[in-house]
Amino acid sequence: MVSAKLIRVGLVLTHGLAYCRGVLRGVKEFAETRPDWLLMPVPPESREICAVAKMKVSGVIAHVYTEELHRAVRALKKPWVNVAAVLAEPPAPRVGIDDRLVGALAAKHLLERGLSHFAFLGHGDHYYSVERERGFCEALATAGFSAAVFHEREGIRFDPVGRLWAFDSGIGRWLRELTKPLGVFAPNDIWGLHLTEVCRQMSLRVPDDVAIIGVDNDDLLCDLARPALSSIAIPSEKIGYAAATMLARLLAGRRVSRRPLVFPPLGVVSRRSSDVLAIDDADVVAAARFIREHGHRVLCVGDVLAAVPVSRRSLERRFRQHLGRSLLEEIRRAHVDRAKDLLAGSDLALHTIAQRAGFSDAKQFSIVFRQLTGTTPREFRHQIRSR
Predict the structure, then answer these.
(1) What's the 3-state SS for 21-82?
(2) Which of 27, 118, 179, 350 can bridge 244 by disulfide, Cβ–Cβ 3.0-4.6 Å?
(3) Is the pLDDT of residue 365 over 70?
(4) Residues 263, 240: Cα–Cα separation, whole Å
(5) Residue in 250, 247, 256, 260 with CA at minimum distance from that of residue 39
(6) Confidence band for 1, pLDDT divided at 50, 70 and 90
(7) Are 197 and 214 in contact (CB under 8 A)?
């Protein structure tokens, strides 16, 4: 039964962003336990936010990406929680993603492709972009590499609808001058999509010349890219649930930490834009491609050696030298990547997915999947598909 005293919660989020839609789903999940919560979607515009004051809003969850929005939300003088990291930590509780870990994961993904030349493009004055760049460059430095960096000119506002005008900002000329093959990290899928089109404009092949990975795993943007964009998945629904939990504490008069609550990324969803092996060893490339192409069936190292007839000792040594992992580890990675695609894109039962992803049984599937991703297949499906 609904309480006589309603708690009006303003939701200042951009519905066009997959991240924000995931946050909204998380808020809704929390609100199912609070029948007295009345959810009020509010467009992220100062005028609309000011109008909320007349509706006796109790608290706000907001994706604040400009100083103007920050001032408007703060002027309500109500408890609020921020779920954006565009501004450099406005004075409000925040829930979000560990952006340095995002950058480190992007570096790991591109390094695993055997690349030795890297680049980052983004914003030099947007907090999330700066942190993702830092995590990316730090991880590369640990591996003995560095990255070329391109920053959009200062003062450009974060644009949730994607008007980046990348074609006119010199990105193409910058890319053309960098050594190929090149691995590029874009701090979100909007940038990643623009980058694939810039490469087409400059006659640069993706992924052969330029391998690209973005962030957010926005299914529309990733599929719109040509070729489809690899991306780092974000636990946006968990962020939304945590933001609602934090707001509930504030509304109850309880204190919360001013230190941001951040979650690690879910992992990389690999697509064609980063499907490259930049290795000067034909046998290693042939072995890795055989494993990827046969990731749907049970494989053992002997199957790989039958397809690439060299000694096991030699191939194992060279494989580890170039890719930093063994043949068996690569086989398991291929099976898990195949399973991720099936978990995200089908309603198949877990035992069927295990069979179609090359695992001997569902138990082995669950054990290996958790070892490589840190989560169970069921949890991964829920987190990815809730978006």
Answers:
(1) HHHHHHHHHHHCCCCCEEEEEECCCHHHHHHHHHHCCCEEEECCCCHHHHHHHHHCCCCEEE
(2) 27
(3) yes
(4) 11
(5) 247
(6) very low
(7) no
Distances (CA, A) of 174 to 25, 195, 209, 305: 39, 12, 14, 42
Confidence grade of residue 50 (pLDDT, cut at 50, 70, 90): confident
Helices (H), the chain: 18-31, 46-52, 67-75, 99-111, 127-142, 171-177, 189-201, 219-224, 236-251, 282-293, 301-307, 312-323, 327-345, 350-356, 362-373, 377-385
- Lookup: tokens for 5: 């005293």
**Alpha carbons 348 and 337: distance in angstroms, whole number:** 16
Quote the tokens at residue 26.
Answer: 């998380």
Residue matched to tokens 């295990």: 354
Record the tokens describing residue 337, joined without a space.
């990547």
Residue type, 249: R
pLDDT score, position 210: 96
CA distance 149 to 34: 46
Angle at alpha carbon of residue 304, lines to 298 and 307, rounded to 5°: 120
Least confidently predicted of 73-87, 93-107, 256-270: 256-270
Specify the amino acid at residue 273.
Answer: S
Left if phi > 0, otherwise alpha if psi is -120 to 50, otherwise beta: which for 158? beta
Look up tokens 């509010």; give the residue.
42
**3-state SS class at 336:** helix
Query: Is residue 74 scored above 60 in pLDDT?
Result: yes
pLDDT attached to residue 164: 59
Whole-number Å distance between alpha carbons of 305 and 303: 5
Query: With 0-12 CB in 10 A as exposed, 13-18 as middle and 19+ as buried, what is 306?
Result: exposed
What torsion, rounded to 10 degrees, do the Cα atoms 124, 128, 134, 136 define?
A: -110
SS3 277: coil
